[in-house]
Amino acid sequence: SPITYRLYTGEPDLPHIISLIASELSEPYVIYTFRYFLTQWPHLSFLAYTPQSPTPIGVIVCKESIHESSTTNSNSNRGYIAMLSVDKRYRKRGIGYTLVKNSMEAMKLDGVEEITLETEHDNAPALSLYESLGFIREKRLYRFYLNGKDAFRL
Length: 154
Hints:
Keywords: Acyltransferase, Transferase
Number of strands: 7
InterPro entries: Acyl_CoA_acyltransferase (IPR016181), GNAT_dom (IPR000182), NAA30-like (IPR044542)
Structural class: alpha+beta
Oligomer: single chain
Domain N-acetyltransferase: 3-154
Organism: Lentinula boryana
Protein name: Acyl-CoA N-acyltransferase
Number of helices: 4
Distance between the termini: 32 Å
Helix content: 25-40%
Low-confidence stretches: none
Strand content: 25-35%
Shape: globular
């Protein structure tokens, strides 16, 4: 059945987002982290639903910031994908791809010139997804996550 996507709409979405992120991502986040992203950049966060599910099966949380470039001595608007999670039962259906595309399009409308993120170095499905969207492995970050795992910055 078709998957529907919508923007984050406010505090009633928060428990569902927290639950989905906590069940699928290794990094623990406190409620203040979610509120930091969601209250300042609600237009960059999307949720995915099936017709049968009252709770989201996928979510992306992002932000934007001004980045100073040391090479050009100018500022640019940079996007950041903070969290992406799709319920294990619904993976391999293009949901993560669509969530990232939706956020990328919203960031483009805001004039974002570059988007960054980190993912665990051994998360082959995530690396494959992001590389299919044009992301490039920029740097390996050793012991980046609290669980001791390395990450790639893309």
